[in-house]
Amino acid sequence: MTLPILPTTMVGSYSMPGWLERLKTEYFSRRISRHDLDEIHDNAVRSAIKDQEMAGLDIVTDGELRRDNMIDYFVERLPGIQIDRSSKKFYYDFYDSEVLGKIPMAALGLSEDFKFLLANTEREAKISITGPHSLTKRIRNKHYPTEEALATDIARVMNMELKELVKAGAKNIQIDEPYYSGFPEDISWGVKVLNTLVEGVQAKIAIHICYGNRYGKPSWEGSYRYLFPAILSAKVHQLSLEFARRGGEDLELFREFSPPFELGAGVIDVKDQAVETPEIVAERIRKTLKSVPAEKVVVLPDCGLFHLPRDIAFAKLRAMVEGTRIMRKELGH
Amino acid sequence: MILHLNHTRRDSAAAATSEVVATFLTMLEEGQLTPAQFARLEIYLDWLQYKQNFREPVTVMQSSGDESGAAVRLDVRIDSRQVPEGSLRELVQKALGPRGSEQRDSAGRIYLEDFRSFRSSITWDFNRLYWQRLKDWEHATGKGYEKELPGGVSDGHQPEAISDSVGDFWTLLKDLESQNQLPQEVFILEIGVGLATRAARWLDRFCVLDQERGTNYYPRLRFLLGDYSLSTLERSRPAVMKHIELCSFIALDALDPIKTLSFLRHKILHVHSTNMYDNLPDEEIVWRDNRVYWVQVRAYVPPADAARIAGACGIEVADIERTVHRLLEVGADALPDRAKGMTFWMEIWKAIRMEERLVDAVDLPDASFPAGLSSAQMEDILKEAPGDLRIHLSSGALESFRNTLPLLHPRGYLQVQDIFVTDLHDYCMGFHGPGKLGGSIVNWVNGALLREVAERAGYDLHFAQFKYRVGSKTSVLYTTQRE
């Protein structure tokens, strides 16, 4: 499948409907069965895929609607992680989890969800995975001597899973590492662990780094300058960053360091319910192109659309696609 | 008959309980109550903290369906503080009337509105009038509005509390600096500034602390003083003159701060307010038999008061309603003689009472819970609550809270000094407003609902007793990031 210049995609999650939130919480209260919840998830995911297609995205995801949050979906699957299942009040809460021994190698079973996505779209598909650094920050470490050691073992297990995803047909894999921004002092070992994670994975790898989107608000503030130069040694093809909410000042870093990878440029503010006009989106892309050539730019929202109402999320995606079309025309495509 | 004891003042509760039981049993024996009525009686024995309030000593709550439903219960609310000794029986008889409602007593009342949610009641127009024309009120009473507060001073001005607040904030800045995340401009917002006494003391203290510790944070401060009243903002200016270069005076709607300050979204490190939530529009619901009922109110002036006020102000009783509306538009100039206009305002406000009725939520499809609280959430909250519960929705406070949180920097926090009900069970142990404070309305704030909204917005809420004044009923709400 050939993608147009300035391809458009999601970062990962799509709007979580209120009714699905309630049903997820019902599941945790043992009021509906796992079987019913799975069926509900299937239908919600189909709907999310359809919305992305209707909005005109070039690369779609499953909207991550099966996930309670960016951590638990993985922590639940990681072998050797102990979870306190009574620790959630609301489905979106994080489980309390801890690691008491060495994490064994085992499959996580992510391929099934990806296969479902492939079976329900003819567009190019992408799957997003929470990275080892971020997972490590949410797991109480009672075994490994350092956080890096724990993250490295998580990366080894997940590396095997990424290869399974490739076998299942994944061509675009995104690693989410928002906790880099909260712990900039970790960046050098964070990148080492990232490289362990993606070693030998035959897919286009993107790394998404934002300033957090928990509850639809930022968790930290600062500048992406902390990423450089360490990030330059990351074995990835694309760096996805948020610029819409924060402004484009850090785009300068791309001029200053000329990283070898593409830029996934966030042009939709996911923390504001006001819908951007296509012209605003076009202007944000135009600004990006002053620092990065169009051939190396992918257009996406700042982060997941999880917290936005569905009508607003959809309208924002439409505006993003329309704004991108304006720019493609301007570039003669 | 079921008797609900809604307060814990031992001596008065014991005496009132005995009198209530004796009164209703005597009425039953004498045939003034039928056995069916007696069986349906639910008596609520309250103690109203606010001497000035909107209640009659004895009121009968009407429920939708009263007219036809023989099985509908009879709710009688008694304010044990207002009932003169030996008069309970007469008041109960008067309130119950021949049809178990207030039909008999209602003759002669001057109604100022139709039944509606308290939030939209005309009483809030009086509240607005008070703040808009505060000088007139203060001039007429000869005392500043803070003198109306319990203790005669605002807890917001307490020097030790301010000093601790400054210390906490300085620690946050130091921590941010150590992580290389201290913003160039440090934004602080106070909503509802009064005369800026607190703001001035806060800035004074911060300046001293900053100098003592040699951190040079003070020049980075951007102190925003927000209030909906331009005249209040103007009055607040002199207090902060020493720090005027750091201060901005911003007219904003306390219900929607983000609307005015959207350019500071996620940038403000500290938001503070004192006694602001308790003066925002509110409404109440009743949770009973697994159903939600909305409390609707209708403001009126009792006939005796109407006659007295009309006489004192030189108008006809029939002109009272029209004059009230004129008053709400132009203040004391509603009457040709301004002094009489002032008297009219103060006396009418003192006299206003509210009738109440319960309406089943299914009959009010357009009534909605405050933004941030879905019906499903409310149902979950109420299922955990004690049965037969009447609570504030604190709609104005919730709205303000929800529209303030997006202003907070990721490390920022909100601090609110106010009167909170932090546990829904407390609604069964006391009456928490509305009351009248000077010319304004005061209501305790439903902290339990705030906590729920906060959790969904990514914050944990904590309430700490205000420890700086003995006997203070103030609590301090503060937010921490929810992981």
Structural notes for this entry:
The complex is a heterodimer of chains A (333) and B (483). Chain A is of the alpha/beta class. Chain A contains eleven helices and ten strands. Chain A has a seven-stranded parallel β-sheet. A three-stranded mixed β-sheet of chain A has the order 2-3-5, with helices on one face. Chain A is 39% helix and 14% strand. In chain A, strand 8, helix 9 (252-257) and strand 9 (262-268) form a beta-alpha-beta unit. The mean pLDDT of chain A is 96. With 483 residues, chain B is an alpha/beta fold. In chain B, 34% of the residues lie in helices and 24% in strands. Chain B has helices at 10-29, 35-40, 88-96, 123-132, 134-141, 159-178, 197-213, 230-236, 257-260, 303-313, 320-330, 338-351, 375-383, 395-402, 447-457; strands spanning 2-5, 41-46, 58-63, 74-79, 110-111, 116-117, 186-191, 221-227, 247-251, 268-274, 284-288, 291-301, 353-360, 389-392, 408-418, 420-421, 435-437, 440-442, 445-446, 459-465, 475-481. In chain B, the strands form four sheets. In chain B, strands 1, 2, 3, 4, 5, 6, 11, 12, 13 and 14 form a ten-stranded mixed β-sheet that branches. In chain B, helix 14 packs parallel to helix 15. In chain B, 41% of the residues are buried. The chains are: A alpha/beta (333), B alpha/beta (483). At the A-B interface, loops of A face strand 15 and helix 15 of B.
